[in-house]
């Protein structure tokens, strides 16, 4: 069953992207949405089926197409993100049940997609310029018409920085590398972030 | 290493407590000085140096946490520590 709180996230899973993924997850949880992201530990067909299931239960999707090029010059381009984006578009067109699904497409530069994947023209495409604060802003601003009561992006960004301090301290204390995307599973990261945000908001409301 | 339940408890506790930290945070307008738990910045300075100085001038500050552009931690020192 599709849920209006669920947001499917399609993005690269590497340590270079982790500084953008964390504020993306944080922003969604802060505005009371539920990120849906596939675990990297699943392989092949299992992973693809899980992705399809996550897409099917999510009213919203965020597809970050900013990292399609190879990480190193001799590597191959990375097609997982546009591939999963295509699955999502296909599902939306497949039945009336999914016709209200909404997509936000993230890029690093505003018009680069026109050169590499022009079929998505006409959709909501925003550039984050590889800046974590800009990720918070474009995601928050995109949801503003849907959720008018959400706070300013600056409040979320300031809170995120405070979270980041605790994240680093707690992971180091427990002998995890806070810069490694594989230190915790995504469900652990989301659970910890949710706990932190819930308590942070309670503390702020009590003040 | 602890279980995720214990880890989650640590996150809950960290967000609930106020340790008198003041954060110097990158901002579109420069560098923001933010007291722990505050929804708004106390002041925004055009330079990081100016923001660190302003953070150290906050009476209630116990520690000053300076962030990098991506939000990660550059420095966490006692107030007015010059190291």
Can you describe this structure in just a few lines?
The complex is a heterodimer of chains A (207) and B (83). Chain A has 207 residues and is an alpha/beta fold.
Q: Largest interface by residue count? A: A-B, 43 and 36 residues
Global mean pLDDT of chain A: 90
Helix content of chain B: 25-40%
- Give the overall pLDDT of chain B as a whole number: 91
Strand content of chain B: 25-35%
Oligomerization state: heterodimer
Uncertain regions spanning at least 5 consecutive residues of chain B: none
Overall body shape of chain B: globular
* Number of helices, counting only DSSP H or I runs of 4 residues or more of chain B: 2
> How many beta-strand runs of chain A?
5
Which segments of chain A are poorly predicted (pLDDT under 50) over 5 or more consecutive residues?
Answer: none
Coarse shape of chain A:
globular
What is the radius of gyration of chain B computed over CA atoms, rounded to a whole number of angstroms?
A: 14 Å
Proportion in helices of chain A: 40-55%
H/I helix tally of chain A? 7
Largest sheet of chain A: 5 strands, parallel
What structural class is derived from the secondary structure elements of chain B?
alpha+beta
Please tally the β strands of chain B and state the result: 5
Tell me the fraction of residues in β-strands of chain A, as a range. Answer: 5-15%
Reading side by side through the largest sheet of chain A, how are the strands ordered? 2-1-3-4-5
Q: What Rg of chain A is obtained from the alpha carbons, in whole angstroms?
A: 17 Å
Keywords:
heterodimer; A: 207 residues; alpha/beta; 7 helices; 48% helix; 14% strand; B: 83 residues; alpha+beta; 2 helices; 5 strands; 33% strand
What does it look like?
- The complex is a heterodimer of chains A (207) and B (83).
- Chain A is built from 7 helices and 5 strands.
- Chain A has helices spanning 18-30, 44-56, 80-94, 113-116, 132-143, 153-173, 186-206, and strands at 3-10, 34-36, 58-64, 102-107, 124-127.
- Helix content of chain B is 27%, strand content 33%.
- Chain B has a 5-stranded mixed beta sheet, covered by helices on one side.
- The radius of gyration of chain B is 14 Å and the shape is globular.
- The model of chain B has no long low-confidence stretch (mean pLDDT 91).
- Chains A and B meet through helix 1, helix 6 and helix 7 of A and helix 1 and strand 1 of B.
